[in-house]
Amino acid sequence: MDSIRSVMFAFSLAILFAGPACADTLLMDNVKSATQMVMPERGMSMDTVRAEFGNPVTEHAPVPTNDGPLHPPITRWDYDGYSVFFENSTVLHSVVTPAQAE
Questions:
Q1: pLDDT at 42 over 80
Q2: What's the CA gap between 100 and 97, in Å, rounded?
């Protein structure tokens, strides 16, 4: 009876940990493909991004805040396959869009 419980316990653990292992593998595949893209880097100015990467496909208006200098406006520029987020006129992040990550 104890051996059956041991087998069932081991089987339950195997099922429990099998799902997250597959998800981690898929996530790593997406990260690998994203790192191969050349995108603007943190700290670049809007002028430098425009000079090196050209005009964006879509340039969104800044999102204003009423909280003063602690929460400056954020602007998003969309390029083919990624978006660039600016705080004032400085790059915060470049993010691969979902269509490109797949």
A1: yes
A2: 5
d(CA 30, CA 14): 25
Q: What is the pTM of this model?
A: 0.62
Q: Are strands 74-79 and 58-59 parallel, antiparallel or unpaired?
A: antiparallel
- The dihedral over CA atoms of 10, 15, 21, 23, expressed in degrees to the nearest 10, equals -170
- Longest Cα–Cα distance of the chain, Å, equals 73
**Could you give phi then psi for residue 89, rounded to 5 degrees?**
-120, 25
Phi, psi (deg, nearest 5) at residue 67:
-95, 10
Residue % of the chain over a pLDDT of 90: 47
Identity of residue 70: L
Please state the domain extents for the chain: 1-36, 39-102
At residue 97, the 3 state secondary structure works out as coil
Place of tokens 């999102």: 63
Residue position matching structure tokens 């396959």: 81
